[in-house]
C-alpha cells in the first residue's frame, strides 16, 4: 500500500480547504476534523499530489515522503 497523508487532529481547525482540493474525495470533515476515508480510491495521493498538505493553513496534514535528488 502507498503512503497516505498523516493528519494531526490537534492542529486541524476544520476549515475544509483540504477537502475542497482532494480530487479523489477521500478527505471529509468528521466532527469538524479532517478524516481519511476510502483509502483505496486515492489515485492522486498514490502519485503524491500533496495538494491537501499545500493548502492546509495550520500544518495539520503532512506527507511522510522524502524527496531525494541525485
What is the strand and helix layout of this fold?
Blueprint: E1 6-7, H1 17-21, E2 27-30, E3 33-36, H2 43-46, H3 51-55, E4 61-62
Antiparallel strand pairs: 1-4, 2-3
CATH hierarchy: architecture: 2-Layer Sandwich
Order of helices and strands: EHEEHHE
Shape: globular
Strand content bin: 15-25%
Helix content: 10-25%
Number of domains: 1
Strand line-up in the sheet with most strands? 1-4
Overall strand count: 4
Mean pLDDT: 85
CATH C-level:
Alpha Beta
Structural class: alpha+beta
Biggest sheet character: 2 strands, antiparallel
What would you report as the Rg, rounded to the nearest angstrom?
Answer: 12 Å
Low-confidence stretches: none
Alpha-carbon distance between the two ends? 25 Å
Please count the helical segments. 3
CATH topology: Alpha-Beta Plaits
What does this structure look like?
- The strands form 2 sheets. Strands 1-4 form a two-stranded antiparallel ribbon. A two-stranded antiparallel ribbon has the order 2-3.
- By secondary structure, the protein is of the alpha+beta class.
- The chain starts with 5 loop residues before the first strand and ends in an 8-residue tail after the last strand.
- It has helices at 17-21, 43-46, 51-55, and strands at residues 6-7, 27-30, 33-36, 61-62.
- The model has no long low-confidence stretch (mean pLDDT 85).
- It is globular and about 40 Å long.
- The longest helix has 5 residues, at 17-21.
Amino acid at each position: 500500500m502507498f503512503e497516505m497523508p498523516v493528519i494531526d487532529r490537534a492542529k486541524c481547525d476544520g476549515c475544509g480547504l483540504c477537502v475542497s482540493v482532494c480530487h479523489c474525495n477521500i478527505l471529509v470533515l468528521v466532527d469538524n476534523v479532517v478524516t481519511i476515508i476510502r483509502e483505496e480510491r486515492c489515485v492522486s495521493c498514490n502519485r503524491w499530489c500533496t495538494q491537501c498538505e499545500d493548502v492546509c493553513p495550520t500544518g495539520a496534514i503532512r506527507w511522510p515522503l522524502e524527496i531525494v535528488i541525485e
